[in-house]
Every structure is written in C-alpha cells, then in structure tokens.
Amino acid sequence: MKNMNLSERVKEIRMKSGLSQEVLADETGLSLRTIQRIESGQTEPRGDTLKKLANTLKVTPDEIIDWEEQTDKSFLSALNASSLGFILFPLLGIIIPLFLWIFKKGKIAGLKSLIREILNFQITWTLLLVLAFVTFTGITIYRFAQAQDMSPALMINPTIKYVVYGFLYTYNFILIIINSIRIKEEKEARYQPKIRFIR
Question: What is the per-residue pLDDT for 1?
Fold first, then answer.
C-alpha cells in the first residue's frame, strides 16, 4: 500500500511538472524502466535515485516519500530497553534513547510520547543520583571541617550509601522492565516520578 501511495505521488508530481516518463528518465539520468517500476509501485526510490528525482521534479525528498508514522512495537520496546545503559554510566540512560529517537523521529507512532516519558524520567533520576552523591559528600566534608579531623569514623556509614544508590538503580531497572511489558501489551509506558523537562 505504501509503495502504491509513493508511485501515485511520483506520477502526480511528474504530470504536474509536464514531464513524460521518457523526459523524466532523460533528465534524471535514470533508465525509463526504473521510472516505470517506480510509478507502478514495483520499487521505491532510495538514496541517489531519490535525490535525482527530487532535483528534477523540483521537490524535496520528503515530498516524494511518505514518512507516515508506522506502528513498530519492537522499536518502541528497544528504545525503552536502551535506557538500561544507565547501569554502565548514568548519562547513557539519556544519550542512547535520545540517539535512537533522532534516528527514527517522526516515523513511528507513539515514539514522541514514549521518548518524552523516558527522557524526563532519566533526567530526573540522574539529578536524584547526583543530589545523593553531593549530599553524602557535603555531609562528610562538613563533619571533617567541624571536627578538624580526617578520621574515617566521621564518614557516613557506607551501608546508607549502598541502600540509597541500590534503591535508585533497582527502581530504575524495574520501571524499564515493567514498561517493556506494557509496550508489548500495547499499553502506554508510564515513568514516575519525573520532572517535565521536555513537553
């Protein structure tokens, strides 16, 4: 169906330009057979062929190809799972999904709302992680300054740090798994809590 829509578009633009298939083939440097195959829906113009058609017909490639959004649960699921990069390094939970979103932007239904949920949550989570680190470091420095001593006894109990960091990492991991299941069941992904940095 998509090929037929594309073929009709190419034919319509060609006819509006007042060109025959033969003239279009000649001006683009493509074979007449290639033009016929495109207009009959047997093939889609890609890469250099698409550029040549667009230039000759004086349109943009986007006007020839219909970038209508397609449903792709597997990509949405992969996008959600890509935020697991936070396990290796916190910012990877933001960078990897962002890169994947740029690659498929505007081509997949539900992508915009999902990337908003993921990025807003991962940014919020990263800020909480940084806040916890700064808080623990600040308390330790304050204790050293007050006691005027660098005794290890003044440092915060490591167990408290492990519990806080462990909770943050576990919560993030579980939420990603839950949302992967929700996406497969065609339900909306939900990430809470989050600050709406991206709307």
Answer: 39
